[in-house]
Protein 1
Amino acid sequence: MERNTKKVSDSMVEQVFQVRPEHLNGAGRLFGGQLMAWIDEVAGLVGIRHSNGDVITASVDNLKFMRGAYLKDLIVLVGRITYVGHTSMDVRVDTYIEDHRGIRRSINRAYLTLVAVDENDKPRPVPGLTLENESEQAEWLAGEKRRELRGQRRKEGF
C-alpha cells in the first residue's frame, strides 16, 4: 500500500507575536524560554497539519539564537516540514523581527522532531513529503543527516 503525500506548503505555518512586558527577561530582552515556547507551538501546528492529528515534540536538534528582541518588537515565526520518517517529522522554525515596513531580520532558527500519535499516544504513520524544489531537497538531505546523528547519539548514550 502506497502512503499519501503532502507538499511542504500544505502544512506551513506563519504566526506573529508582539513582545510584551511579561515576555522580557531581567536584561530587558525577549526571554529565551518564551521564544522556545512559541517555536514549539508553531512546530506543533505544522506537525498537526501535516499528519492530520495529534503530535508530540520528541526533540530539539538545533536552537540557534542570533540576536535579541525587545519590547514591542513584532516576532514572526515561520514553520515548515523538512523531512518525514514513518511516524516522525522534522520541522524547521525560522524566527524574525519584522519592522513597520515589513522588513524581516532573522533572530533564530530551530529544528524540532515531532512524532504523530493516535488516541492512545502511540506513534502512527504520517504522510510522505513531496519535494518541489532544490531548497526542499537540500532540507530533506539535511534531515537525513540529523536523523543519522540522532541515532549515533542514542547509541553513544547521549
Protein 2
Amino acid sequence: MRLPFFVYGTLRPGGRNHDVFLRGRTRSEEPGLLPGAVLYEGPGYPYAVEQHGGTVRGEIVAPLPEAYGELLDALDRLEDCVPGDPRSLYERVDRDVTASDGRTVRAWVYFAAPAVAARLRAHGTPIEGGDWPARR
C-alpha cells in the first residue's frame, strides 16, 4: 500500500531528521492528529504507543510517487523497523489519522514495538499533550 506517513517526532518540520529524509521527497505535509495513542519520551526521540484516551500531534506526509519506495526503505531503517524481528524498536502499521480539515486519512505510523511499548506503559514518561516539539 502506498500510504502517506504520519510523523510525530524528529521527522516533523524543524526536527533534526526532517530535512535529511523528507526535503524534496514529499508532495505535501499537513498537520494531523493520531487518536488512540500516547507519546512517550525516548532517548532523544519519542515513541507512540497505542493507548485509549490519548492523542498524538504530528504531520501527515505524502511522498512524491517517484520517491516512495526509497523513502519507505529509508524510514524503516531510521526507525529500526524490521517486519517480524522482535528486536525492532518500532513497527509500521496503518492507522486512521485526522487531518486539520477533519478528513480521515489512512497513513503509516511507526509505533513502539510490542516489547518497547510494554516497558513504556510500565515505566515510561508520557509527553503531556502528545506534542513532541512542545514538550519543553
